[in-house]
Structure to design on (850 residues):
């Protein structure tokens, strides 16, 4: 384990709209660090800036000013192919709406990141089989996304997110489209991935139940981080209660 | 209120509507262009001296109507997909189903009528422009041809309105059957590819078999006569459809099992094509048929173009002859390129024409060796002075430039000089290429004809005369070939481009997602390039094979339909490649995520 933080954000600003037009500042100076191996949640209401922040972290968008270092590398300076390669090697994604390719089977969807890296067929086969076992989706591999339930799709998406062994996994409301049982299963799974595979996870959510699986939660409101709470070894139920209380006061 | 919502929808889907309308306008314009020729009986009877012409045109019209039907049905499905969310919304807001149904039929018919009317106007303009350009370039005159032809306008309008009405009814049925909630939720699920190997293999064998029957039918034109055309149309259409449906899927499935498939985006690209090909079966079939028809028509047009000078060269060893050229004619004679000239001196006296024997010995008069293949390369032989003296060579007799036939006599210089008559000259011209010198030859021919009319009106010495006669016979066919070839080529491109671009919305999501998980832009581009390349290449390849067999149909009509076919295919390929590049450019603009800005 190195001492470099997995994420180091300094004075991050993002303003939408061109100069001279009506401008809107979505992020107003965000600072935070995330240590390697952490499971961090970012909470906030709609319009608080949490999705904007995630887009900056995940190199999907460029900040107006400030820096984002991931694994010691300033990603705001990356361009073109370097961004693509960075995403392919360093980060994984799970989205609310799964974002699986419906023309590919579950197996092919999971294998895609490895294919992109030019891994040979045999190794891909082994890796997919292994991850499918971890996530209990061995029976689903030959199916197309249209034949899977929401929970199954999200597990396939999670498998795709971690197959390339990224340092960091981003979850954008991954339980948003799931029923409570599937959501619970997925969160347990993420927790296990975090623990067993040592993949750092950053979860963006407005759901207190999902957030209660994290080690630490940052509350964002109107473009700034307002509050931070840590689990510190408490039980999940206790942590859940604190999150609810925090939300009660924070959103006032 | 409903009107306002409709307008808002058109605004928000403007790009899709433009694609839809462009496609429909193109298809009605081209249908009109074809109908203009096909329904023009006077043109077919008098300008096309080809006994099967009207039958061939009727088959063509039926084939084009089937193609248009598929096209209109497809366009309407596209329209309903765009509109169904709105219709669902109207119903959710309390609009009665009957009201919404009225709206749907009205919208479909308005779009149909609008597109057809614009299409006919463009068709008239295109017919005028294209025919003017072609006639000018080919040096042809066609009577009974007019860009504005009321019968064709009526046929086009009636067919398209009927098709749109059928399409509206089908859409209506589909919409009424669908629950409101489903209308509101965009149906973006993709069905699984039903990969049933046994069924696919049966379909593949059937497809190849039908195609073989079609090719056999075209090959046997001499025994089957006209029957070979309908047999070929039916079997080749169904055969191509089955091939695209089954054979391609089987091949792709084999490729998918190789190591190559797991490299980069290859797997994704193959899967995209597999899904596409199924969805595109009809359009690929149509494209291959249009490709074949366009290529075939242009090849045949070019074939006639090439045959005419050959026929002409077989009738005479000389292009034309000028008696006593004046200053203008002398100047024009100098303008001819690659020309050989022979001059004979003449004296006229006592109803006889005298020549210098020495001149004919030096430059013997030549005639074409008669051949039973008028389009073969011409061969010439010398004619003896004896034969010429007996006036057995009708061509030589025309060299006098007089209406009556004069007896020719060949004298030595000693005998020639004392004859009391002015020395006159006749110049025999042979040019290498008549089409290259057409303008000058035409002027020379006219002035010679007015100064020295021959016994038969409009008949002059030499192959240029035959050339003019042949053009009036075969020129119509040549014109039709080029005209239809260009029209089909335009329709083909619009069909395939339209269909591919219409799928862009769905693909946009896929490519954005691939970019998110770290696919390089260049890799995405390459995937798009190869996916669309396959969609273009498949019908193109089948189209070329169709043409190679289809040209057998013209064996009875021209010397060698396959002459220069390689060049024509290459030229065609270049234009087709242009369409391909345009399509991928547009497609990448539509589906690829914007480049990261600073």
């Amino acid at each position: 384990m190195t001492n470099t933080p997995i994420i180091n954000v300094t004075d991050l600003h993002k303003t939408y709209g061109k100069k001279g037009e009506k401008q809107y500042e979505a992020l107003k100076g965000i600072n935070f660090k995330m240590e390697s191996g952490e499971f961090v949640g970012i909470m906030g209401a709609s319009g608080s800036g949490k999705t904007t922040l995630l887009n900056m972290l995940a190199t999907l968008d460029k900040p107006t000013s400030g820096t984002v270092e991931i694994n010691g590398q300033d990603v705001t300076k990356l361009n073109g192919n370097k961004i693509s390669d960075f995403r392919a090697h360093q980060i994984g994604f799970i989205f609310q709406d799964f974002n699986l390719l419906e023309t590919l089977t579950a197996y092919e969807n999971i294998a895609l990141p490895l294919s992109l890296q030019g891994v040979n067929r045999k190794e891909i086969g082994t890796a997919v089989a292994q991850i499918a076992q971890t996530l209990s989706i061995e029976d689903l591999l030959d199916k197309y996304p249209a034949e899977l339930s929401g929970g199954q799709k999200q597990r396939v998406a999670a498998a795709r997110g971690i197959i390339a062994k990224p340092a960091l996994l981003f979850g954008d409301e991954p339980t948003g489209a799931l029923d409570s049982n599937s959501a619970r299963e997925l969160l347990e799974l993420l927790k296990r991935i975090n623990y067993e595979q040592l993949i750092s996870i950053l979860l963006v959510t407005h759901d207190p139940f999902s957030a209660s699986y994290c080690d630490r939660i940052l509350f964002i409101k109107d473009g700034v981080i307002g509050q931070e709470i840590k689990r510190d070894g408490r039980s999940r139920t206790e942590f859940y209660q604190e999150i609810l209380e925090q939300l009660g006061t924070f959103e006032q | 209120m409903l009107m306002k919502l409709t307008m808002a929808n058109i605004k928000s889907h403007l790009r899709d509507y433009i694609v839809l309308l462009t496609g429909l306008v193109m298809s009605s314009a081209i249908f009109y262009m074809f109908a203009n020729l096909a329904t023009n009986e006077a043109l077919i009877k008098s300008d096309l001296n080809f006994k099967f012409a009207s039958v061939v045109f009727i088959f063509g019209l039926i084939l084009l109507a089937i193609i248009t039907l598929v096209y209109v049905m497809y366009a309407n499905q596209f329209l309903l997909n765009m509109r169904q969310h709105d219709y669902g919304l109207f119903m959710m807001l309390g609009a009665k189903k009957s009201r919404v149904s009225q709206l749907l039929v009205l919208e479909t018919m308005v779009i149909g009528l609008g597109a057809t009317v614009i299409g006919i106007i463009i068709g008239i303009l295109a017919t005028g422009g294209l025919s003017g350009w072609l006639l000018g370039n080919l040096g042809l005159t066609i009577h009974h041809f007019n860009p504005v032809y009321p019968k064709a306008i009526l046929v086009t309008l009636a067919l398209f309105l009927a098709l749109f009405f059928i399409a509206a009814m089908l859409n209506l049925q589909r919409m009424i059957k669908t629950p409101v909630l489903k209308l509101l939720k965009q149906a973006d699920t993709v069905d699984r590819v039903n990969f049933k190997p046994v069924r696919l293999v049966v379909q593949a064998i059937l497809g190849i078999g039908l195609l073989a029957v079609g090719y056999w039918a075209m090959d046997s034109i001499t025994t089957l006569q006209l029957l070979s055309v309908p047999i070929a149309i039916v079997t080749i259409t169904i055969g191509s459809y089955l091939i695209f449906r089954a054979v391609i899927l089987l091949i792709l499935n084999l490729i998918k099992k190789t190591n190559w498939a797991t490299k980069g985006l290859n797997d994704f690209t193959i899967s995209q094509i597999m899904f596409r090909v199924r969805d595109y079966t009809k359009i690929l079939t149509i494209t291959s048929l249009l490709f074949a028809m366009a290529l075939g028509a242009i090849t045949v047009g070019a074939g006639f173009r090439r045959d005419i000078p050959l026929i002409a060269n077989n009738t005479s060893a000389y292009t034309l002859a000028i008696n006593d050229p004046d200053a203008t004619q002398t100047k024009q004679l100098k303008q001819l390129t690659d020309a050989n000239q022979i001059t004979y001196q003449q004296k006229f006296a006592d109803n006889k024409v005298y020549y210098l024997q020495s001149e004919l010995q030096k430059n013997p008069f030549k005639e074409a060796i008669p051949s039973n293949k008028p389009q073969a390369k011409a061969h010439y032989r010398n004619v003896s002075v004896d034969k010429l003296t007996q006036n057995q060579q009708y061509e030589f007799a025309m060299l006098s430039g007089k209406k009556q036939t004069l007896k020719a006599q060949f004298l030595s210089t000693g005998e020639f000089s004392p004859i009391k008559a002015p020395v006159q000259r006749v110049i025999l011209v042979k040019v290498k290429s008549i089409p290259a010198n057409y303008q000058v030859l035409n002027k020379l021919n006219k002035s010679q004809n007015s100064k020295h009319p021959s016994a038969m009106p409009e008949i002059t010495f030499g192959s240029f005369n035959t050339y003019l006669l042949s053009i009036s016979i075969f020129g119509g066919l040549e014109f039709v070939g080029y005209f239809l070839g260009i029209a089909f080529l335009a329709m083909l491109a619009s069909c395939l481009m339209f269909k591919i671009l219409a799928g862009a919305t769905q693909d946009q999501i896929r490519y954005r997602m691939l970019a998110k998980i770290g696919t390089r832009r260049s890799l995405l581009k390459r995937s798009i390039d190869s996916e669309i390349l396959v969609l273009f290449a498949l019908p193109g390849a089948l189209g070329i094979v169709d043409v190679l067999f289809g040209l057998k149909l013209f064996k009875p009509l021209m010397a060698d339909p396959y002459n220069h076919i390689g060049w024509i295919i290459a030229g065609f390929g270049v234009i087709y490649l242009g369409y391909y590049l345009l399509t991928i450019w547009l497609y990448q603009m539509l589906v690829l995520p914007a480049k990261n800005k600073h």
User: Anything to note?
Assistant: The radius of gyration of chain B is 32 Å. Chain B touches chain A at residues 189-192, 259, 262-268, 271-272, 274-275, 509-510, 513-523, 595-598 (CB under 8 Å). Chain B has a mean pLDDT of 80.
